[in-house]
């Protein structure tokens, strides 16, 4: 990519866009299923609350699993597919994240490679702008998507972008650039996918509560 673009920073951005284009169909399916999960969440909580006091090893727990499986079936979903769809995008993204980190550590060509305000992509962002923007983009992604989590879990998830931003403050700027570019691609796709789903089926449109 660098042979075509001529700048390692823009090469990272272009390569990230290409990776996200390849993964777009899977992410589309994942977003659609996430919305379905948010829709059936109230019914799921009713089932879980009914069995809340049942010990984990009690045979009645099997009845709860059967009710949950029936709930998925009524909504045209399956438990195994939901687990796969929920984890696969992350599992496919992680190797690229690790690969970028390793390349930025060992590649001689990337030492001293500049990009806009960044003098060296293999070192930390001098003004910490990319890790901060990466965290903000993660926060926006979470706000855009409906969720089946309870309020306490949602608050914990909202802390994650800030925690990751702090963790990656001293990470190579090229790594933060990759993650930021990937998040921007995901935000664009989420917006497009939500509009497509709303046009096809208004009931699949995410319902935003007050303050959202």
Please outline what is shown here.
The chain is mainly alpha-helical and 212 residues long. It has seven helices and no strands.
Q: Label the overall shape.
A: elongated
Q: Helix and strand string, N-terminal first?
A: HHHHHHH
End-to-end distance: 40 Å
Note the total helix count: 7
The portion of residues assigned to helices is over 70%
Strand content: under 5%
**What average pLDDT do the residues reach?**
79
- What is the tally of beta strands? 0
Low-confidence stretches: 206-212
Taking the sheet with the most strands, its summary is: none
| Cα Rg | 21 Å
- Label the structural class: mainly alpha
Q: Could you name the key traits of this structure?
A:
7 helices; 71% helix; 212 residues; mainly alpha; disordered C terminus
Structure explained in plain terms:
With 212 residues, the protein is mostly helical. The chain is 71% helix and 0% strand. It has 7 helices and no strands. It has helices at residues 2-5, 8-50, 60-74, 79-106, 129-144, 151-167, 173-200. Helix 2 (8-50) crosses helix 7 (173-200). The longest helix is centred in the first third of the chain and has 43 residues, at 8-50. The radius of gyration is 21 Å and the shape is elongated.
